[in-house]
């Protein structure tokens, strides 16, 4: 039971979520001399990378696209950062910009008080159960796209005798050698987990129902490099040409490509291309079996699929995505956040709502998008708070050096 709350603590800006988006927003504000407080449910910053990502994860984009504002990765950092390095980078980033963070604070409600012209935020200290009240003129929602695990309901699953987990709980193939494992979902996580399992000696199957664009890291980095210079339709054609050379016809192995090109798809839909980490070679070699139909039911250890196939498994990993929980606590209907808990408007109109409400990292543009949002939000807040300062320069204050250390 939550205890009684004290008077609200006044802040200039409250940021909800201490992932890369929240940290970047706090740093950009601090560089403009604006004080903010970050409320984070977990007990660390960057918890996605520490607690909800598998061991072999490396960032899919080269490091130059994965640096937060004002802190490039050093020259000797690996091109594709391992998960733990990126988590360490976020720790160092928070320390370097003196980000004020309250950990283990779950925001349960945030509403705008028009009389007081401020946001009133209620958070629970998960360590003590105490309710805390905060008030601020500005509120930044930075709770990410990967909050609550989504697992589809499958009749009979509750009696499945083996291991069932979400991708967020999967760490490695340890203990799975020789076991028949089903991965459900052909996104980036599902495909990489399938690779990891097969490499670790599991008899691996993966359910890939929809269409997907398989690309390689190298091809995608070429596409990213061309983006400022070429129209998107040309980038799509070049990417597909390179993919045809590298992969051949992926549909022959159960991976059908959408009609819309990969770069257009990334910019205009919630779907990301899948960056191949070696899974495709394993599919071609028969070490990963692609199953095309949804799970229909489970009887004992046998899974029945919608196309009538039946196969026994020892374990099932659901790489079926996440849901945002923002709509549960944000009491606002200004159209900034949609019914799915993500930005309602598309890029680049997505980041600013009414009455000092903003969102960062909620429009499926990855780390790169978090950075852009942070700069825009900090610039806007600073302009509203201190117009004279913003006119002179948009980054006053302690400028960090350029090597990220
Ligand atoms: C396995 C995996 C690999 C990925 N790899 C890449 C990649 O290589 N490149 C890339 O660009 N993107 C990648 N992504 C996409 C990735 O989600 C985003 O880039 C990034 O993590 C989003 O950062 P964020 O700060 O917006 O959200 P998050 O990192 O999810 O941070 C949000 C924070 O908000 C907190 N929170 C949520 N609700 C509340 C609440 N009510 N009160 C208080 N705190 C709350 C959460 O605890 C969390 O710490 C990957 C995603 C996954 C799942």
Automatic annotation (TrEMBL):
Keyword Flavoprotein set for record: yes
EC class: oxidoreductase
Cofactor names: FAD
Catalytic activity: indole-3-pyruvate + NADPH + O2 + H(+) = (indol-3-yl)acetate + CO2 + NADP(+) + H2O
Domain of life: Eukaryota
InterPro entries: Auxin_biosynth/cation_transpt, FAD/NAD-bd_sf, Flavin_mOase-like
The keyword Oxidoreductase is annotated on this UniProt entry: yes
GO molecular function, one term: N,N-dimethylaniline monooxygenase activity
EC nos: 1.-.-.-
Disordered: annotated span: 385-405
Biased composition (Polar residues): 390-405
Keywords assigned: FAD, Flavoprotein, Monooxygenase, Oxidoreductase
Similarity-based family: Belongs to the FMO family.
UniProt-listed PANTHER family: FLAVIN-BINDING MONOOXYGENASE-LIKE PROTEIN (AFU_ORTHOLOGUE AFUA_4G09220) (PTHR43539), OS01G0273800 PROTEIN (PTHR43539:SF42)
Protein name in UniProt: Flavin-containing monooxygenase
Organism: Paspalum notatum var. saurae
């Amino acid at each position: 039971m939550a205890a009684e709350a004290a008077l609200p603590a006044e802040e200039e800006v409250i940021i909800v979520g201490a992932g890369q988006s929240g940290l970047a927003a706090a740093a950009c504000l601090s560089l403009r001399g604006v004080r903010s407080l970050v409320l984070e449910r977990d007990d660390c910053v960057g918890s996605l990378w520490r607690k909800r990502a598998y061991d072999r994860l490396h960032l899919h984009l080269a490091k130059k696209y994965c640096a937060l504002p004002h802190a490039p990765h050093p020259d000797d950092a690996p091109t594709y950062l391992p998960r733990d390095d990126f988590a360490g980078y976020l720790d160092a980033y928070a320390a370097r910009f003196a980000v004020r963070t309250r950990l283990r604070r779950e925001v349960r409600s945030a509403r705008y008080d028009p009389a007081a012209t401020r946001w009133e935020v209620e958070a629970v200290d998960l360590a003590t159960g105490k309710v805390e009240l905060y008030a601020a003129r500005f509120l930044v929602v930075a709770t990410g796209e990967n909050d609550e695990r989504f697992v589809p309901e499958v009749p009979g699953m509750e009696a499945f005798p083996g291991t069932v987990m979400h991708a967020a709980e999967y760490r490695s193939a340890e203990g799975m050698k020789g076991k028949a494992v089903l991965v459900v979902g052909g996104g980036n996580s599902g495909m990489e987990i399938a690779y990891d399992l097969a490499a670790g000696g599991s008899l691996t199957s993966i359910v890939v129902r929809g269409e997907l664009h398989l690309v390689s890291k190298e091809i995608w980095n070429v596409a990213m490099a061309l983006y400022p210079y070429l129209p998107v339709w040309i980038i799509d054609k070049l990417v597909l040409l390179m993919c045809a050379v590298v992969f051949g016809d992926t549909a022959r192995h159960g991976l059908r490509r959408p009609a819309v090109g990969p770069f257009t798809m990334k910019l205009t839909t919630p779907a990301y291309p899948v960056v191949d980490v070696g899974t495709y070679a394993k599919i071609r070699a028969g070490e990963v079996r692609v199953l095309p139909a949804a799970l229909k039911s489970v009887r004992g250890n046998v899974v029945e699929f919608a196309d009538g196939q039946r196969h026994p498994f020892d374990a099932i990993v659901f790489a079926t995505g996440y849901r945002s929980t923002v709509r549960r606590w944000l009491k606002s209907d200004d159209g900034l956040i949609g019914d799915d808990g993500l930005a309602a408007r598309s890029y680049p109109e997505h980041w600013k709502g009414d009455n000092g409400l903003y969102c960062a990292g909620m429009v499926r543009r990855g780390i790169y998008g978090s950075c852009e949002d942070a700069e825009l939000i900090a610039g806007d807040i600073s302009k509203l708070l201190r117009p004279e300062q913003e006119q002179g320069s948009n980054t006053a204050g302690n400028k960090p050096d350029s090597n990220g250390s």
